[in-house]
Amino acid sequence: MPSNTPLPMLGGLTATEFLGDYWQQKPLLIRGAFPDFESPLDPDELAGLACEEGIESRLVEEHGKGGPWQVSHGPFDERTFARLPERDWTLLVQAVDHYVPEVAELLEAFDFLPRWRRDDIMVSYAPTGGSVGPHVDQYDVFLLQGSGQRRWQLGGKVADDAPILDGIDLRILAHFAVEDDDDWVLEPGDMLYLPPGWSHHGVSQSDDCLTLSVGFRAPSADEAITSYADYLGEQLPSSRRYADAGMAPVSDPGEIDDDAVERMRGLILETLDDPAQLAQWFGRVMTQPKYADQLVASDQPTEPNELITALHAGEALMRTPGSRFAWRALDDKRATLFADGDGAECSLPLARALASDTPLDAKLLEDEGAVALLAALLDAGSLAWDGEFDESST
User: Fold this and answer.
1) What is the tally of helices (H) and strands (E) in the chain?
2) Which residues contact 213 (CB under 8 A, 6 or more apart)?
3) pLDDT digits (tens, 9 = 90+) for 115-162
4) 8: how many CB neighbours lie within 10 A of its CB?
5) What is the pLDDT of residues 303-323, one digit of tens each?
6) Chain segment 191-249, per-residue pLDDT in tens
7) Neighbours of 84 (CB within 10 A)
8) Residue 172 in contact with residue 133, Cβ under 8 Å?
9) Which residues of the chain form beta strands (DSSP E)?
10) Residue 394 pLDDT
11) Is 0.85 surpassed by the pTM of this model?
12) Distance in angstroms (rounded) separating the CA atoms of residues 307 and 304
């Protein structure tokens, strides 16, 4: 998609304008972002997903029997929904794009952003009055109204240590005040973009309110440092240690002096300052699946000749729902393909094809290294044969 093309889903802004003026900077309300939008699923289908084992779901009751803002976790059953009051509750289901292809197709509209930045599409349903309270998310999110109406109020950017309500399983802000005129009711097809750290409060205005939240992943500094250190620790030889050859005699053997600290600092910085290693770690961490147990490895290794025969016979491979792919060039011919937290070197064209949305068919076999890589991805569960998944259910 050309970066200078005005996009209706961005209110007529180009991708360049949106990224330069709004992304991670300030909210944007987009009326009619998806004209004539029809929700890809209805409340009953969402409730059905919330009843499935292995699907992350929550039920938030503002006036629960166990107290205000009661949170319960799925899977649920019909009795759960039968006992609910007529209003003031919300059902949230994570990663609906992993289970409903029509929801996953919405992600194609966000291709002006890196695929590896995507997290998932959460879908929430609420009758009138349903809400999860005023809160802050630490990631970018596009809130697309699927059906019904939801009122959104914004309270501006808040500090990391803003006080929250005690004693509940939600991070609801203790203080929330609407800023300026940031108070809107969204209709189906309307969308609100929010950068990280922006306080907001959404309340259902109808009994058929479905909202799709397209979220983006961003590791925190502490997560990144810990993860990168673990990755480097696996690569480094045990012989690489603190050293102090040529040091001067110490005046106090109990002191840790500046020279010692500087030597340790040098060892750490020298180890960390490796752009190639950083890129390899980054590709792996940003393609880790949202749910580690979602990928199912093959019981038997894929037979290369059978793989070749199947592709030449017209069968096609598919990327497993929830799998994540990315690539990074090593030179003008080779690249690392990152898939679900792992990395493999291959040709640049093959890496780009696998990390795109192009069909995975016999054309891939034109690359001499394709068979081994495709077999490995099949064995790992990152790829599957088209038709192995019933795409209308889990």
Assistant:
1) 10, 16
2) 121, 122, 123, 124, 141, 142, 143, 144
3) 999 999 999 999 999 999 999 999 999 999 999 999 999 999 999 899
4) 14
5) 999 999 999 999 999 999 999
6) 999 999 999 999 999 999 999 999 999 999 999 999 999 999 998 898 999 999 999 99
7) 14
8) yes
9) 28-30, 57-64, 67-73, 89-93, 118-126, 141-147, 150-157, 183-186, 191-194, 198-204, 209-216, 317-319, 325-329, 334-339, 342-347, 383-385
10) 42
11) yes
12) 5
Token pair recorded at residue 319: 């990327």
Token digits of residue 233: 């620790």
Closest CA to 342 of 373, 317, 372: 373
The CA distance from 94 to 323, in Å, is 15
Contacts of 244 (CB under 8 A, 6+ apart): 259, 260, 263
DSSP 3-state percent helix, strand, coil across the chain (nearest 5):
30, 25, 45
Which 3 state secondary structure label does DSSP give 290? Answer: coil
Query: How far apart are the C-alpha atoms of 365 and 254, rounded to whole Å?
Result: 65
pLDDT band of residue 24 (cuts 50, 70, 90) is: very high
Can you tell me the distance from the alpha carbon of 96 to that of 200, in angstroms, rounded to the nearest whole number? 22
Token code pair at residue 379 = 């064995």
